Amino acid sequence: MKLTRQLLKEMVQQVVRQNKKSFLLNESYQPDPSHAQSYAEIMEVLHGMGASSIGIMSGQNPMAKVDQSANNAQLHQSLIRDVTNQGLRYIEVGGVFGGLPEDSLVIIDPSMDQMAELNRKYKQWGFVYGPAQGGQLPSFVMMKMDVDANDQHTQNPPTIDAGPVEEVIMHPRTMAIKDNYTFDVSSKQKFLIPLYGVPDSIKNTPATPVGSSSDMEV
Q: What's the predicted TM-score (pTM) here?
């Protein structure tokens, strides 16, 4: 299905409505419109709007291990500088993978070679990549970097470890996920590209249909 801007807007509006409903009984809750804007921007990019390709990676926790030197913050800022210096746009996101929290970037319009070089520099296990097709969901794949017996990166090209997947699971369906997810740093709303399958915790949770009944306005 081709995803138009209007259809995507309706999907994100439904997400915001559901989010408002979940907080209606909390007297201290104050809606922040920037949350919806940030999440909407991420969803637009992940649905191929205004991008020829999409990459997702972190510079933190090299080789999926806790960074014992405690310089994860510096690694994240260094990755931002490298991406910026290559003339690429990005959106900062957070995530939890294998129980490890980390800051990541959704990188807009990178080549596969650019993603691989960044992963070598930051000693990463791998990255998510998807060529965008103008409003259609990209075919996302998990690319695994090639390493030698000592966990040192080689110059061999990365290989596909999982995928392709043409799906992005959105909030509120993702609320019950406890590990291996990404989130918008502003609203903390989660999203998931199910490269390794849909988690058991949400398998029986239906997706929010576009245009489902709600009298609330965004």
A: 0.79
